[in-house]
Design goal:
five-stranded parallel β-sheet; Rossmann fold; 397 residues; alpha/beta; globular; 16 helices; 2 domains
């Protein structure tokens, strides 16, 4: 099993709180990690009909069958069980008794926070990061990596084909999560929406334009976007602006939390197609942005602090990390080299808003740490300086 960088955060939280709640997309490794970390815990999978029925009909008997400490998997199947967990936590007053996992974010996270306020640590988790893969000795070329994404199943043994896996993944995702969460009457249109959204990765999303292309209302598009975000299939990157009167674009950008899903939806099935696709630059940017998000989650920060910046005249900074005291600006390029042209937007931002650190992430061949096929990460202070560990981007605390 590949070691997950989020593990220390989970252990610390279990020493502090009675429970830890892990949120993340399906098959990102939540259950595998929980069971490997706490092999002596009882395990209850609420996807199983009998277990789910017992939890719904007789919660006390459920905990007799699955005594604490316990891993309760896919809590969204029986959210009412949270009230029983709250009662038992208050009665027992013990730390580290529950690992709760869930594959949906918004409404369920609200329910968890409300029911278990002060009793649980909520930790977000995503598929495998590039650093986790590298630390385990897995080093793919950048086009192969974009195609494969980070789902652990693809790295568990030999002969796993990304296109086949993600085909099954999207089918399962649609039939289980989306169908369960909302009444979607026209799945053909919804799948068309998914494919069109993949074609807009890394771009500003215009709901009205999408609605016209799909043939539904903009309200429906907004609802579907919320569903995808709730299931952690997409990540919505918000724009940074100092005040609401600033002349900057306030429309968010979207990224898929796994580039393998985006490639499947775009019909990309080989590394060569990744390289030749007109969206190659956007897919590369998608990978970098999600790597930043994973690093923030792994360090268990309360707010990911990630933004982008774009003015009405088109000046854009691909990614920003607001550390509340120092701003890091990132230009992301899929090209093989960088030059001063890439610094213009960041220098413009610094002239307007003050001191910030400039960085360039690109896919060139100058990287000695992980080899020529990997990302190159460079700090820019008037000159280019290659870091020793390009994949360990400065996105942690």
């Amino acid at each position: 099993m590949i070691k997950r960088l989020i593990e220390p955060s989970i252990r610390r939280a279990m020493e502090t709180y009675p429970s830890v709640t892990l949120f993340g997309p399906r098959q990102c490794g939540k259950t595998t990690l929980a069971r490997s970390m706490f092999p002596g815990f009882s395990y209850a999978n609420l996807e199983e009909s009998r277990t789910r029925e017992l939890a719904s009909s007789d919660p006390n008997e459920f905990f007799h069958a699955y005594p604490e400490p316990v891993i309760v998997d896919e809590i969204q199947r029986v959210p009412e069980l949270l009230s029983t967990i709250q009662y038992r936590i208050d009665e027992r007053k013990l730390k580290g008794q529950y690992i709760i996992t869930g594959s949906r974010q918004m409404a369920l996270k609200s329910s968890v926070v409300q029911s278990l306020a002060g009793r649980t640590a909520v930790i977000d988790m995503l598929p495998l990061s590039l650093r986790e893969l590298s630390d385990s000795g897995i080093r793919l070329g950048k086009e192969e990596q974009i195609l494969a994404g980070g789902m652990p199943f693809l790295y568990d043994g030999e002969g796993k084909e990304p296109s086949r896996y993600y085909s099954d993944y999207v089918d399962t995702y649609v039939s289980r999560d989306i169908a369960d969460m909302s009444q979607i009457h026209d799945m053909d249109r919804f799948m068309r929406f998914l494919r069109l959204l993949a074609g807009r990765t890394g771009q500003l999303v215009n709901a009205s334009a999408l609605a016209g292309d799909v043939g539904v209302s903009s309200t429906t598009i907004g609802s579907w976007m919320s569903l995808l975000e709730a299931s952690r299939l997409i990540y919505v990157l918000k724009p940074w602006y100092r005040s609401r009167t600033s002349q900057v674009v306030k429309t968010p950008k979207i990224y898929f939390t796994d580039t393998g899903v985006a490639c499947f939806l775009l019909g990309i099935t080989t590394p060569g197609q990744v390289l030749r696709d007109p969206l190659y630059g956007s897919l590369f940017e998608n990978m970098v942005v999600i790597e930043a998000l994973k690093a923030r989650y792994d360090s268990y920060v309360a707010d990911d602090g990630l933004f982008f910046y774009r003015t009405g005249n088109g000046t854009e900074i691909d990614l920003m990390l607001d550390r509340r005291g120092m701003m890091d600006l990132f230009e992301i390029k899929a090209g093989q080299a960088v030059d001063g042209y890439y610094l213009r937007a960041m220098r413009s931002f610094i002239q307007k808003y003050g001191e910030a650190r400039m960085h360039v992430v690109f896919s060139g061949d100058g990287c000695g740490y992980l080899g020529a096929d990997f990302l190159n990460y460079m700090d820019v202070y008037g000159m280019f300086m290659e870091t020793e560990e390009p994949y360990r981007l400065s996105f942690t605390k």
